[in-house]
Specification:
234 residues, mainly alpha
């Protein structure tokens, strides 16, 4: 069937790109996406580090609250025992007021301390939640470029493998594997935090930031050095 569009396409169709041309284009895209990732990571690194450090401080505070709460319970028991001893030792008619004062103190003091600890713990959890939310927002800005880096690695591995130098093949495989490992970490980040999990969440986010920093170092190679093609080695 006659088709003007088909004839036009056949007339102006250029020669298909060679494997070397495809590899060079993929390398260019890898360079661009790696550079953008590094720029974005450097821009947000300090903020991400502060978020992790803030979560770490909240983790330490929660531990301190637990220790203080245990000490408060112990003090309450001690005051209760002292109140009973005083009640037995002092005559009922002469020591009623003193006993009442000690009883109120034995009950009221721990209650006030526990209430203050609860309020402080709630504030710490609010700060921790805000920190991890800010961290995840920054990660969401970095992941799209890592996704493009991974896609370019796949293209090089599938269509341009034969034109890459041996060392570069290994480097591409390592880079692709590293990106996948970072994805596993970022996608598995906890979305909530509680007093019982704050330490675990802190370690999780600290490790993720460390791996992102290693990713930046690994990508630096592809922004400063051209990938060697097999044809250039001959």
């Amino acid at each position: 069937m006659f088709s003007f569009e088909r004839i036009w396409t056949e007339m102006f169709r250029s020669n298909p790109p060679s494997p070397e041309d495809e590899a060079e284009e993929s390398i260019k895209q890898l360079n661009i996406n790696a550079s953008v990732f590094i720029i974005r990571f450097n821009k947000h690194y300090q903020s991400m580090l502060e978020s992790v450090q803030s979560c770490g401080r909240m983790s330490e505070r929660v531990k301190q609250y637990r220790y203080t709460l245990k000490a408060c319970v112990g003090l309450s028991l001690l005051l209760g025992v002292l109140t009973i001893v005083v009640a037995v030792a002092v005559a009922l008619d002469q020591g009623t007021f003193a006993i009442e004062i000690m009883s109120v103190f034995a009950i009221g003091f721990p209650f006030v301390v526990i209430l203050m600890l609860w309020e402080e713990r709630q504030k710490s959890m609010t700060i921790a939640r805000s920190s991890i939310e800010d961290f995840r927002r920054k990660v969401s800005l970095l992941n799209p470029k890592l996704e493009k880096v991974k896609r370019v690695c796949e293209e090089l591995r599938r269509s341009s493998w034969s034109v890459l130098g041996g060392t570069e093949r290994v480097n591409i495989m390592r880079l692709e594997q590293s990106v996948l490992e970072v994805f596993v970490l970022t996608e598995g980040l906890s979305m909530s935090v509680s007093p019982d999990s704050v330490t675990q969440v802190y370690e999780e986010y600290r490790k993720t930031l460390s791996e992102l920093d290693k990713m930046k170092v690994q990508l630096n190679y592809y922004t400063g050095t051209a990938i060697i093609l097999a044809s250039e080695c001959q």
